[in-house]
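debug: dumping io for the single-chain case to check the tokenizer round-trip. Nothing else runs in this session.
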Amino acid sequence: MKLLFPRSGVMKKLPDPVFEHEFDAATSLGFDCLLLAEDVLSHEGAEAAVRQLPDGDGGPLLYRGWIVPEAVYRQLYDTLASRGHRLVSTPEQYAEVTYFPNYYPKVRKASPPAVWTDTPDEYLAWSRSRTLGDGPFVLKDHIKSAKHRWHEACFVPQGAGRERFEEVAAALKAEQGKAFHRGFVVKQYIPLRSRGPSPREYPMAEEYRLFFWRGKRLVASHYHEQPANPVDWTPFERLAGRFDAPFFSMDVAQAEGGNWLVVDMGAGECSSLPPSLPATKFYKALRDAWAVPESAASGSE
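debug: decoded output
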């Protein structure tokens, strides 16, 4: 069982400090952990990024690192294949759960209403938002939001008007910089059940991150550092069955009205562990699930 983590940009033989606790937990549980020169991936290409890796034997390799665009992931996938490593998710599977327009149609009925653009055009995003009414809205690009700047670059209050909408959209685009992904997503804001004051700008809600492996729930943990409440995950497990991707995350939250919503998704390769989920628990669940042959995989935790 092999994992691929980003290396440190300073200590080349060590993992990126952000992933060090995951690297250590996975190693302690028997995973063979390799290091990717992700700091050179986007600048010099995949060949340079994997130059120090040993050749593989054709077996699966699971990437755990930073979000990369589909084109970069495809280049990495092909380069690793030429070296005898088979990334668990194909480029198509990675894109299926990474980009909002790809996954939203499959979870639409369980998600807030949304529209999007395919270009970073603030006015076009405003125009399309009119089909959702007068707000409030949450803005993001095709992959990420800037909810750490909730009031400046994420949330548009009800009735804010075009000028304020475009200010928030422009701030989002500036915040993401070169990492802005494709276009704007405008989601109708639905108030979520509160779990108390938040240490960040965005509200702390009754929200969970679910990881899925081969269509089955791997683990579920509160998105914030909060104790979990009993939740029936069955509806979301059914939704997970609609996806071809073998490894992905699904963020779900309870609205003030009591219903549960899919609020976000992502490739499992790039989805961070919430603070309530110990790395050892996550990698033990992954190790146990990985050991089950695909044809025999069934049930969930």
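debug: round-trip ok. The radius of gyration is 20 Å.
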